[in-house]
Structures are given as structure tokens and as C-alpha cells.
């Protein structure tokens, strides 16, 4: 299974309203709840924040990939959000984050979320890919950018 199987247009928010890390995570989790991927927003949020306390998922280059495994997650998903203004996500490079990928996986899933995380991280190394994600204007277009890039890696 590829990223295309987990990134759906209904799980993409082209402009986040949040101004901080907690707000971003809550906003992305709300998309999961709205599409019935989770049973309990608070539980998923708490698990995500516990993960963030271990080490930031703001990996630098304007990217944050918060990830969570929780019994409140019904099925794996990737939620995307973007902020054109940038948000302080306590990133490793101390710079604002603009692109956010929340990976959510059921508690009993094996390493699926880690494989997705690794694949995303490899793709996001490329500046032209990050720039395309910043420039695209629709959720469908954004998903297409990801699918095309993923297919070029095969």
C-alpha cells in the first residue's frame, strides 16, 4: 500500500487556522473525527502530545510529521494541513513549519505508520516536492502531487 491509499482529499486542509502546535494537532485530528477515522478526539490528541513531549516531530525544512498510535484510531490515515504564514512547531531547525502530515494508526497496527513516515520523509527531502505542496491550490491537486512523486520513487 502506498501513501495514495491513506491521503484522501477529505483529509486535507489547505490553510490551517491554528497558530500553534497544539492547535495544529487538534485541527488535524478534527478532520479525522469528521471522517469517522477515530472514536475519541481527546484520546488521540493526548497520545499525539505525549509523542511530541518525547521529541518534536518538526523535522525542519518547514515540515512537521506528528504521528500517533491509539486505540481510538479505527483505521490508518494521513491528514495534511498547510499554513502559508508558518507555525512554530519547535522544529529541529528552529524555523516555522508550513507543511503538516499527521499520521494516525490503530494501536495494534504493526509498523505501518513507521513505513509511511519513512516514505514521506524520503519524499520531503526534495525541495521541488515541498515547493509543489506549497503552491498547489486544491486538495485533489495536492493528493495528485503526492501520488506522482510517490510513483516516481518506485
Automatic annotation (TrEMBL):
Any GO molecular function: protein-N(PI)-phosphohistidine-sugar phosphotransferase activity
Domain PTS EIIA type-2: residue ranges: 5-149
Keywords: Phosphoprotein, Phosphotransferase system, Sugar transport, Transferase, Transport
Main location (coarse class): cytoplasm
Localization: Cytoplasm
PROSITE patterns per record: PTS_EIIA_TYPE_2
InterPro entries xrefs: PTrfase/Anion_transptr, PTS_EIIA_type-2_dom, PTS_IIA_fruc, PTS_SugarTrans_NitroReg
One of the GO biological process terms: phosphoenolpyruvate-dependent sugar phosphotransferase system
Stated name of the protein: PTS fructose transporter subunit IIA
Source taxonomy: Bacteria, Bacillati, Bacillota, Clostridia, Halanaerobiales
Amino acid at each position: 500500500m502506498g501513501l495514495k491509499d491513506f491521503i484522501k482529499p477529505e483529509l486535507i486542509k489547505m490553510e490551517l487556522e491554528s497558530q500553534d502546535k497544539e492547535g495544529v494537532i487538534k485541527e488535524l485530528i478534527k478532520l479525522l473525527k469528521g471522517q469517522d477515522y477515530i472514536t475519541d478526539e481527546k484520546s488521540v490528541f493526548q497520545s499525539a502530545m505525549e509523542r511530541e513531549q518525547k521529541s518534536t516531530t518538526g523535522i525542519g525544512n518547514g515540515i512537521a510529521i506528528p504521528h500517533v498510535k491509539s486505540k481510538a484510531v479505527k483505521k490508518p490515515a494521513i491528514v495534511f494541513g498547510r499554513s502559508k504564514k508558518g507555525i512554530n512547531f519547535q522544529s529541529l531547525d528552529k524555523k516555522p513549519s508550513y507543511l503538516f502530515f499527521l499520521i494516525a494508526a490503530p494501536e495494534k497496527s504493526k509498523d505501518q505508520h513507521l513505513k509511511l513516515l519513512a516514505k514521506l520523509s524520503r519524499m520531503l527531502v526534495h525541495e521541488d516536492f515541498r515547493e509543489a505542496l506549497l503552491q498547489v491550490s486544491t486538495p485533489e491537486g495536492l493528493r495528485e502531487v503526492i501520488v506522482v512523486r510517490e510513483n516516481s520513487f518506485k
